[in-house]
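#help-structures
NK: newbie question, is this the right format to request a structure? protein is Zinc knuckle CX2CX4HX4C domain-containing protein
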Amino acid sequence: MDMGRVLTGSPWTFNNHLLVLHRLQWGEDPLKVPLIYTPFWVQIHDVPARLFSEKLAAQLGNFLGSFLGYDGANLGKENRNYMCIRAQIDIRRPLKRKKQVLFNGICSYVRFKYEHLSLFCFYCGRLGHNDSFCKAKMLLGVEFAELGWDLSVRAQSRRALSMNSVWLREENDSQRE
């Protein structure tokens, strides 16, 4: 039971560093397990609500890595105008920020925001280091370089968003409905 909770609750971090976990199968050699994939909950913003579907979620999840699941609970909820998917991400690759999609003959972009995002580089977009220790930036030999990523890829937690619920307001709160 605890193993399942740990695996479904990932990604986990320690001192803001990502912990990559893998459940060993019987007979699997731990020394041969590539610790390069980890699941993330990813919020997909700027998708018209009428197009929220598991099919679209799977397509976008496979664009990010490997689609693992879809949380349909966001539909119609206040402050939740995004799709939420779970995808297995290759941590050696830069985080994907957006994807061009075609909605009813109109080209548009959807934006990706990663929940529980740990240490990542604003220069190369990879997890595990910051721009002060980026090999790609060091190879250029420049002290100041244009950053390709920013905090917009970090999602606000869904729990923080739900704190605005009318059920959680104080009894004397003037915003009562």
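mod (FA): yep, format's fine, and the tokens are attached above. The two ends are 41 Å apart (CA to CA).
NK: thank you!
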